[in-house]
């Protein structure tokens, strides 16, 4: 048997798995929460939770985020205020994709895959847009935080929605939401006041 350099090195190793983590957003602060290669973490207000979130809108054991064979999922642990992913209420267990925005009460988390580019932003369908707006208004009512909504008129109805969303992708934050209603592109901007939203609008259309 020929003793080649490759055989002396031993079997080739697979590329390292993606690094999975959550970005926890609270007010003006953000915290990086690494996820295990395999296993699960519990997010909640209780001291014994794996990820402790000190917010009254979060239940003591609010949600579980698990990882199995490189794929992540989230489950509601019977929380009072529920779990939403991209504005949609989670029933049972739901898989997570890079860039997904998770809300637990008034708290926002963004799921990331560290070694892969984030997928293109997905526009919310009409029902998803309404649900996300309702969720943000509830958050404003309970926490006093701001939310702004931009309505951008689309000059040509023949422009594909995916092209419109792609054009805004680089100018939006991960927590922002976007969807189209008729010829109007709706952009949800959590935590931005009126003046901040005006500045964001000027940046989007520039």
Short description:
By secondary structure, the chain is an alpha+beta fold.
Structural notes for this entry:
21% of the residues lie in helices and 35% in strands. By secondary structure, the protein is of the alpha+beta class. The protein folds into 2 domains: 20-113, Tumour Suppressor Smad4, CATH 2.60.200.20; 126-205, Alpha-Beta Plaits (2-Layer Sandwich), CATH 3.30.70. The longest helix is centred in the middle third of the chain and has 18 residues, at 126-143. It starts with a helix and ends with a helix. Residues 1-16 have low confidence and may be disordered.
User: Over the alpha carbons, how many angstroms does the gyration radius reach?
Assistant: 20 Å
Stated plainly, the CATH topology of the largest domain is called Tumour Suppressor Smad4
Helix content: 10-25%
As an assembly, this protein is single chain
Q: Reading side by side through the largest sheet, how are the strands ordered?
A: 2-1-11-10-7-8
Number of strands: 14
Note the overall shape: globular
Count of DSSP helices?
Answer: 4
Helix/strand order: HEEEEEEEEEEEHEHEEH
What structural category arises from helix and sheet content? Answer: alpha+beta
Give the overall pLDDT as a whole number. 78
């Amino acid at each position: 048997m020929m003793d080649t350099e490759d055989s002396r090195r031993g079997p080739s190793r697979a590329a390292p798995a993606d690094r999975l983590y959550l970005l926890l957003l609270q007010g003006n602060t953000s915290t990086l929460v690494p996820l295990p290669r395999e296993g699960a973490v519990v997010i909640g207000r209780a001291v014994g939770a794996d990820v402790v979130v000190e917010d009254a809108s979060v239940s003591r054991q609010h949600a579980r985020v698990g990882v199995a064979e490189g794929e992540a999922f989230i489950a509601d642990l019977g929380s009072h205020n529920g779990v939403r992913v991209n504005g949609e209420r989670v029933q049972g267990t739901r898989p997570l994709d890079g860039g997904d925005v998770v809300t637990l009460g008034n708290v926002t988390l963004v799921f990331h895959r560290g070694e892969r580019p984030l997928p293109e932003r997905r526009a919310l369908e009409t029902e998803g847009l309404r649900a996300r707006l309702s969720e943000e208004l509830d958050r404003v009512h309970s926490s006093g935080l701001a939310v702004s909504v931009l309505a951008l008129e689309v000059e040509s109805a023949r422009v594909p929605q995916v092209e419109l969303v792609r054009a805004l992708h680089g100018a939006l934050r991960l927590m922002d939401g976007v969807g189209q209603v008729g010829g109007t592109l709706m952009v949800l901007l959590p935590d931005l006041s009126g003046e901040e939203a005006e500045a964001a609008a000027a940046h989007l259309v520039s």
